[in-house]
Backbone:
């Protein structure tokens, strides 16, 4: 058996470990930020060519997604040419490792949520609202302490899928290019996937593409949270009951599932009124109001997400390794 065939799994393992230890550094040339800049530049050009209709949005979404994956593939191929000269896969390994590492954001999610947790512990609501405004789309200026906790827990649950499960899922399947394609889809949805006047048609394809991309990972997250709840003695049966009861209340087919699972595990209620871009929106209530919201629920939600994410990584590694073994055999 050629151990070199398992080299991709060794690289994605290193990427996951690096993220757990170091986190996702914030710098201007991060791949996701570069994709965001590209979206801003090309949106104007695609609108100029084809207006704001569905066809233009479809072409725009495909260009961003395919182009992002294509650039990564070209860089890996170019690095491989350098490897041919040295005889060692040094350059291509570094390129793949960089993009895989950049696509996972578990430690970053933990750091940002815990930063708000410590501010709430000090009862510094003003700074907590400010920090929260940097990671959520809703307006935070008038949020109560309970509202801040609710928003953080919802974000932690949702980002388990967007920032960990989905990137790893596509990384296991298609390596750095497919993981980067997913990050492009997710960034498109966050920037143009709105149902307002400006993006109702132009962003529809990107929003639907994100729904499709997250469909399987969102449901994987449910079972990972269930197992994590079992390990942490957090009512796994209630996780499943609340997830199946409330997971589809959200207009999105995916985002409500992990939120419902976390709400079930913690015995809290999420959702309710929020303000987005000056407009009051009442989100469906998810979970049972068994326990009043407390800052500790942020820590507990993070514990479930980290445990579930590590479990998924281990299972994904074993499943992919088994497939490799069958192919090699």
Residues:
């Amino acid at each position: 058996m050629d151990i070199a065939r398992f080299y991709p799994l060794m690289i994605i393992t290193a990427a996951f470990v690096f993220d757990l230890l170091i986190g996702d550094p914030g710098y201007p040339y991060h791949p996701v930020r570069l994709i965001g800049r590209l979206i801003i530049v090309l949106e104007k050009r695609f609108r100029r060519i084809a207006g704001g209709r569905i066809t233009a949005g479809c072409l725009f979404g495909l260009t961003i997604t395919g182009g992002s994956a294509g650039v990564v593939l070209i860089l890996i191929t170019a690095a491989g040419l350098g490897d041919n000269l040295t005889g060692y896969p040094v350059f291509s390994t570094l390129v793949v490792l960089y993009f895989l590492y950049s696509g996972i954001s578990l430690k970053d999610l933990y750091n940002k949520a815990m930063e708000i947790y410590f501010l709430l512990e000090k009862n510094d609501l003003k700074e907590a609202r400010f920090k929260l405004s940097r990671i959520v789309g809703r307006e935070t200026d008038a949020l109560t302490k309970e509202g801040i906790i609710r928003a953080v827990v919802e974000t932690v649950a949702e980002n388990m899928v967007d920032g960990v499960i989905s990137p790893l899922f596509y990384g296991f399947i298609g390596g750095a290019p497919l993981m980067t394609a997913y990050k492009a889809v997710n960034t498109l949805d966050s920037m143009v996937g709105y149902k307002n006047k400006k993006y109702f048609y132009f962003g529809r394809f990107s929003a639907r593409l994100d729904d499709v991309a997250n469909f399987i990972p969102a449901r994987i997250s449910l079972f990972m949270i269930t197992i994590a709840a079992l390990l942490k003695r957090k009512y796994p049966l209630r996780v499943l009951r609340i997830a199946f009861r409330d997971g589809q209340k959200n207009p999105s087919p995916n985002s409500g599932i992990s939120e419902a699972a976390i709400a079930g595990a913690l015995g809290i209620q999420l959702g309710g009124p929020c303000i987005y871009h000056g407009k009051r929106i009442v989100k469906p209530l998810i979970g049972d109001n068994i326990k009043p919201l407390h800052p500790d629920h942020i820590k507990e939600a993070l514990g479930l997400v980290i445990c579930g994410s590590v479990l998924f990584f281990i299972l994904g590694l074993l499943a992919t390794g088994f497939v490799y073994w069958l192919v090699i055999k």
Summary: Residues 3-328 form one domain. The chain has a mean pLDDT of 92. The CA atoms of residues 27 and 135 lie 16 Å apart.
